[in-house]
Amino acid sequence: MIMAITRAQSHRPNQRGFTLIELVVVMLIISLVIGIAVVMFSRFNDRHSLLSKADQTVAILKYCHRYAMFNQTGVRFTLKRRGYHLSRQSADQKFHLWTPFPNASSTFSYLNFRWHQNNNTGSKRLVITFHADGSISAPINIPFQLALFLGDTPTHLVISLSTQGAISVKQKGKTIES
Q1: Hey, which residues does 137 pair with through a beta bridge?
Q2: Residue 172 belongs to a domain
Q3: Partner of 130 for a Cys bridge, out of 29, 68, 92, 107, CB 3.0 to 4.6 A?
Q4: Could you tell me whether strands 144-150 and 167-171 are parallel, antiparallel, or unpaired per DSSP bridges?
Q5: Does residue 16 lie within any of the structural domains?
Q6: What is the extent of the structural domain holding 58?
C-alpha cells in the first residue's frame, strides 16, 4: 500500500511555481504601487523645493536687513520675476552692485514672484531698500507680500515684509518661518 501511494504521487504533474497569469497580476499590482509612490514623492519634492527657495529668499532679505543696520549703510534688494540683484551704498552715497555670496545663484530656476504696485502686477522689478536705522522702504505700500508662483501656477506661499523689518514666509495666513 505504501508503494501504491508513492507510485500515484510520482505520476502527478509538478505542482511547484506560479502560473503566468499569477505573475502578471503581481507585476501589475507592484507597478501600480510604484507609480502612485512616484507621483506622491514628486508632489512632496516640489513642495519641499518651493519652501526651500522661499526660505532662501527670506534668508537673503534678512541678511540684507542686518547688514544695513550693523554696517550703517543702505542695501538694495532688486527683485525681478525670476531673480534678484544686491547693491550696497558706498561712501559716495551711490549704490554699487554687490555679491556677498560668491557661490550663490541670483536667479530662480522655476520660481516666480508677483507683487502689486498701484493695482498693477505688470511691474518688471521691485527695489526694496534696507536702511541703516532698520527700516525698509519700497515703491509699493508697506507692509506688502510677495506671492510665489511655480511657473505661472500660484502657490499658497507669500513672503511678508513690514516697515520695521519683519520678514517671514506665510502659508494661507499662518507664519511658517519668521
Answers
A1: 129
A2: yes
A3: 68
A4: unpaired
A5: no
A6: 44-177
**Contact assessment for residue 77 and residue 60, using Cβ atoms and an 8 Å cutoff:** yes
129 located within any domain: yes
Q: What angle do CA 56, 153, 174 make, to 5 degrees?
A: 55
Task: Quote the DSSP letter at residue 51.
Answer: H
> CA 52, CA 69: separation in Å to the nearest integer?
26
Q: pTM value? A: 0.67
Residue 29 has what DSSP assignment? H
With residue 61 as reference, give the H or E element that holds it.
Answer: helix 20-70
Q: What are the grid coordinates assigned to 158, written together? A: 507669500
The more confident residue out of 14 and 113 is 113
CATH of the domain at 81: 3.55.40.10
pLDDT at position 67 is: 92
Collapsing DSSP states into helix, strand and coil, what is residue 169?
strand
Domain count, the chain: 1
**Residue 177: per-residue pLDDT:** 55
Closest-CA residue to 71 (of 30, 142, 132, 24):
132
Taking CA atoms, 78 is separated from 40, 170, 178, in Å, by 36, 21, 21
In whole angstroms, how far apart are CA 30 and each of 25, 59, 116? 9, 42, 48
